[in-house]
Amino acid sequence: MIVWKHHVSINFETGRCPCRNNGAGKGATVFTNYDKMLEYLRRDGRRWHVARLRVKKAELEYNFDCDYMATIKVDRYSREGFKPIEL
Predict the structure, then answer these.
(1) Per-residue pLDDT tens digits for 30-71
(2) Among 23, 24, 49, 65, whose Cα sits 20 to 30 Å from the Cα of 17?
(3) What's the topology of domain 2-85?
(4) Residue 85 CB neighbour total at 10 angstroms
């Protein structure tokens, strides 16, 4: 399945991004629904970079009150890396 990891754009632009691996590390929050992710990030108001990740459903833990976020249980890398997203 496909999930998306988000990170605030300012850290990419200043070189302070902790995202060394172009993906999500174990324990990171990921989005499982692209459209709901867009709504969530728009409400925040900041600019964002997003990485698309391929994961197995068993690699996710659904522990949020919403049905479109999960915690990833493994390190997972993105083939495309983080890209700026237009909101």
Answers:
(1) 999 999 999 999 999 999 999 999 999 999 999 888 899 999
(2) 65
(3) ADP-ribosylation fold (3.20.170)
(4) 15
Buried b / exposed e along 11-31 (16+ C-beta atoms within 10 A): ebeeeeeebeeebbeeebebb
Q: Is residue 49 a contact partner of residue 12, using CB atoms and an 8 Å limit?
A: yes
Which tokens belong to 50? Answer: 């997003």
Distance, in Å, from the CA atom of 69 to the CA atom of 61, rounded to the nearest integer, reads: 9
